[in-house]
Amino acid sequence: MNALMTECIIGLGANLNEPAQQLTQALAQLTAHADIELRVCSRFYTSTPMGPHAQPDYVNAVAIIGTVLAPLELLDALQHIEASQGRERTLRWGPRTLDLDILFYGQQLNINSDRLTIPHPGVLEREFVIVPLAEIAPDFILPNQITAAQFAQEIDLKGLRPLANG
Fold first, then answer.
1. Lowest-pLDDT choice from 39-43, 115-119, 149-153
2. Is the pTM of this model over 0.90?
3. With 110 labelled, which of 6, 11, 96, 121 sits at a CA distance of 20 to 30 A?
């Protein structure tokens, strides 16, 4: 890859069809993509669902990638990976085989379009984003101007825990 890559932070989540395997497979697909360089991934964590609670717990992680793709091209690539793993978009915050979210694109980029909002909305309320992010990028400055590591100490964990052998 070349020096014109943008560093992005991606959230990964799944709670259907062997969720940890779904995340592992997604990381393999990110690694295999010609325009994406997987730099680091957090441990896997289990978390309770945000939406309807009559669904299995989630497995979540956060990864840092480098890419030459523009934001909407990256979104398309991530949605292609989701679809290849059986993602169906039926119920907001419902169960899913795979969810890949662009949390941050570069250092300061803000986007608010019909298809994409960056930074990802609600990122500061999501312990399953903040804690894994603090693990791999403790000095990352969040939209509230606090480092990921500092904010991870303050956020309600809501039962978030590292996945055994994850």
1. 115-119
2. yes
3. 96
